[in-house]
């Protein structure tokens, strides 16, 4: 009986609706980074660096989040 209850706990998903917002925001960061890099005028180095750091943080969070599903 204990093993069956333990197996049921381990198979429970940790998916929450907030996970969707995390993935959507990560996609928006990718789109923003591509637009910043592809701009023809003078490139804003601070904005590009800030977006790269933010994207790295969100990608790590997304990988951690999906591995918990």
SS-based class = mainly alpha
Give the percentage of residues in beta strands: under 5%
Q: What is the number of strand segments?
A: 0
Mean residue pLDDT: 88
Return the domain count.
Answer: 1
Largest sheet: none
Q: Helical proportion?
A: over 70%
Q: Write the element-wise H/E pattern from the N-terminal end onward.
A: HHH
State the main characteristics.
69 residues; rod-shaped; mainly alpha; 78% helix
Describe the structure.
By secondary structure, this protein is mostly helical. The protein has one domain (15-67). The protein has three helices and no strands. The longest helix has 23 residues, at 45-67. It starts with a helix and ends with a helix.
Describe the SSE topology:
Layout: H1 2-11, H2 18-38, H3 45-67
Helix pairs in contact: 2-3
Please give a quick description of this structure:
This protein has helices spanning 2-11, 18-38, 45-67.
